[in-house]
Amino acid sequence: MSKPLFLALAASLAGLLSPATCRADTPPRRLVMQLDLGVKNAQFAGLLVAERDGFYREAGLDVLIRPMGSEPGAYDGIAALVAGSDHTIGSIESGLFLSGRARGLPIVALGAMFQQTPLGLMSFRATGIRTPADLVGKKIAVHGDGHEALDAVLQRAGLNRAQLTVVEADYGNAPLLDHTYDAKQGYLVDELIQMQVDGHDMVALPFGAHGYAAYSQVYFVSEATLAKHRAALVKFIAANNRGWRAALADVPGTARFVVEKHEPTLGLDYQTRSLAAIGPILTAESPQMGVSTPETWLKNAGAFLQSRPDAKLGEMSRWVDFSVAAEAAAISP
């Protein structure tokens, strides 16, 4: 090859490979989806189906779905774990996301798998708790992330905490089963269903139906991940939307798949009931999966700040990016 031709070819290749002409956002070899639960159960059926059916692969993504660890503090540490990564997507309750952001963690919410929180109060049917007014005079146990939810429910009903006894709940249900509490905070698509499957005559008072505006299984990332992999995140949520639609198109078959492939200990009845209960909350606000709204985030943030007067969140535009999930919904509505 002549020297002039070689130099011309080298200059051409340099131009093609220069930062100015390279794509700024190519799909990463791998994304990690960090779950907020130690098992891969029906709560993540859409993701598991997306993995099984090759939806991630079709989008050019290699996704590792990683259950939460069992070490102490793993649940509360998810926000910090995601904040320190440049390739991890987290799944978390919106209240815990806001708590992390208020602590100064550089995290950004992208959307929500569950457009209505499945948090609520569980009680024996015989206890008679059907509405917030029925809580008067009762002993109620809530977790650290449930106080603003309970306060929002009481406020809407014209009640206050002085009219009931509120204690801190642990993560076991034995005190509820032995009637130490009249009602206890729980995840209604998980704990409530498991106790019903076990034969306990339990009913629920859903927080979301009684004044608490919040999301669950919020997709969130670090600011670094969003800047580095934005296009890949759009494809990731779009693939999950496809997975959820496929999962709900065959609830019995999907439940059987989850049991046989991922979590046999929870049982087919539990997985089937859980998936059926999840279906309506995937699109509780919008027929488009994965999206969230400024209105609900403002209400959620208001309840959060009311229960934490010293906390600061800053402008919503800094901690929610609505465009990623909207673009994903346009690809896979």
How many domain regions?
A: 2
Molecular shape: globular
How confident overall, as mean pLDDT? 90
Q: What's the CATH first level of the largest domain?
A: Alpha Beta
The biggest sheet amounts to:
5 strands, mixed
- Tell me the distance between the termini: 53 Å
What CATH calls the topology of the largest domain is: D-Maltodextrin-Binding Protein, domain 2
Extract low-pLDDT stretches: 1-24
The percentage of residues in β strands lies in: 15-25%
Question: Would you report the number of β strands?
Answer: 10
Helix content: 40-55%
Alpha carbon gyration radius: 22 Å
Structural class: alpha/beta
CATH superfamily of the largest domain: Periplasmic binding protein-like II
Sheet with most strands: strand arrangement: 2-1-3-10-4
* Element order: H for helix, E for strand: HEHHEHEHEEEHEHEHEEHHHHHH
By CATH, the architecture of the largest domain is named: 3-Layer(aba) Sandwich
The number of helical elements comes to: 14
Notes on the structure:
The chain has 14 helices and ten strands. Helix 2 (45-52) crosses helix 9, helix 9 runs parallel beside helix 14 and helix 10 (251-261) crosses helix 11 (268-282). The chain has 333 residues and is of the alpha/beta class. It has two domains: 27-117 and 215-331, D-Maltodextrin-Binding Protein, domain 2 (3-Layer(aba) Sandwich), CATH 3.40.190; 119-210, D-Maltodextrin-Binding Protein, domain 2. The strands form two sheets. A five-stranded mixed β-sheet has the order 2-1-3-10-4. The protein is globular, with a radius of gyration of 22 Å.
